[in-house]
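Quick one, probably user error.
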């Protein structure tokens, strides 16, 4: 099977790869580029664990082919914190609310919330909670995750977080 040459930006770095047409973006990010913070759960678009940001939008990387990501800008959980280690507001809020247990679902949840709260976006609490419904967590009971989402919505609207 012939491979395809692709070039894209991942967490601010140029990455070129030779991929089979059937390779998913998730597999390319994990196996070719080494970003293993992209977790694979269901591999058919249900659990949300593989969510990354592609050109500003949260995308399930198990449902996108690597060739479709040619010349896109991708952010994974590894690229979210500042170079000095300062956590992204979503990471910091989830940490403070203890919004994780085993952490398997966490990168996907973080990337969805980061995409929806980036820039000047002021998402409503309702929209963030609705977005979380696309993520399956097996162990926190969701309470901490929901508290973090509510705080992020409140912070965006100017209310005390
Ligand atoms: S692994 Fe992609 S949605 Fe579950
Ligand atoms: S923290 Fe374990 S699956 Fe969500």
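Nope, works fine. Designed sequence:
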């Amino acid at each position: 099977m012939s491979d395809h040459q692709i070039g894209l930006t991942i967490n601010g770095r140029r990455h070129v790869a030779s991929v089979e047409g059937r390779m998913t973006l998730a597999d390319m990010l994990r196996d070719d580029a080494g970003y293993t913070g992209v977790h694979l759960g269901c591999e058919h678009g249900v659990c949300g664990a593989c969510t990354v940001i592609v050109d500003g939008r949260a995308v399930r990387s198990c449902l996108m082919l690597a060739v479709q990501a040619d010349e896109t800008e991708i952010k994974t959980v590894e690229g979210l914190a500042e170079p000095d280690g300062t956590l992204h507001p979503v990471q910091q809020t989830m940490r403070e609310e203890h919004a994780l247990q085993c952490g398997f679902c966490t990168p996907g949840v973080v990337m969805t919330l980061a995409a929806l709260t980036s820039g000047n976006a002021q998402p409503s609490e309702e929209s963030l909670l609705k977005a979380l419904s696309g993520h399956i967590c097996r162990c926190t009971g969701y309470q901490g995750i929901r508290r973090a989402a509510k705080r992020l919505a409140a912070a965006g609207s100017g209310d005390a977080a």
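The pocket of FE2/S2 (inorganic) cluster (ligand 2) is lined by residues 100-106, 137-140 (CB under 6 Å).
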